[in-house]
Amino acid sequence: MIYHLLLHHKSNYLICTTTTSSTTTTSKSRISTQQIVIPNIPANARWQQSGVTISGGHGSGNATNQLNYPIGIFIDDDQTVIIADQNNHRIIQWKKDDTNGQVIAGGNRQGNQPSQLHSPTDVLIDKQTNSLIICDSGNKRVMLWSRSSGTSYGEILVDKITCFGLCMDDQRYLYISDTAKDEVRRYQMGDKTGTLIAGGTLLGTGSNPLQNPSYIFVDEQYAIYVSDDNHHVMKWNKNATKGSVIAGGNGSGNALTQLSHGEGLFVDKLGTLYVVDYG
């Protein structure tokens, strides 16, 4: 069985690494609405140490074969890679084996008009409406942008929020990290206020509160995993009033007990946490 791990890279390209296992009975498990993909990676999996560039790789720029600080990634069912291309103020997609991407939101210079984005940091697909949900960080808003052909603008879902990361569960609840308030909120579609579920007044254990929370992952039990600038990853179980540190939390460093700057993350079916440790 072969598995793929996709990493966003601060050198303006994306790389894909693979792992193999002798186990042949494992399969990828998807929650019913396919908002969350939780891979079933066996404990004896072995990862290749080199990857293949699948997007960008032609230096920093705004051409359709270039990226400029790719920071958020979403993979569609057909392996189309959708990227929040932050410094180009656009969302761009790469279909499998394409040499050029296609701009599908923004790309009209930095701005706050409905057709513009300002430093987007994350993106996902709402399957029910076939729309992008975009964390338009520089404009402090979350946008809903139809994937229908010819769509040139989006609409505001949530505004006045210093958003960074997004996630959606199988009940179509949207989770958004707010770096200014050091919290994560859960929203029903159409809700402008949300419910506090992590950080903020829900302090972490000990002396490890959330600090500039960034990426989010929600598992099948609706536990929330959050990476932040406090050199750790925290977990909040469903309806918990306190979170706990599950990775890092021992200061910044490169020891196996430390994180320098945890970013993208996910948890597999065995409960193994995978974290991109930047820096």
TrEMBL record:
Any one Gene Ontology cellular component term annotated for this protein: extracellular region
A Pfam family hit: NHL
Record key words, sorted: Glycoprotein, Repeat, Signal
NHL repeat residue numbers: 58-97
Matching CDD domains: NHL
PANTHER family: PEPTIDYL-GLYCINE ALPHA-AMIDATING MONOOXYGENASE, SMP-30_GLUCONOLACTONASE_LRE-LIKE REGION DOMAIN-CONTAINING PROTEIN
Protein name: Uncharacterized protein
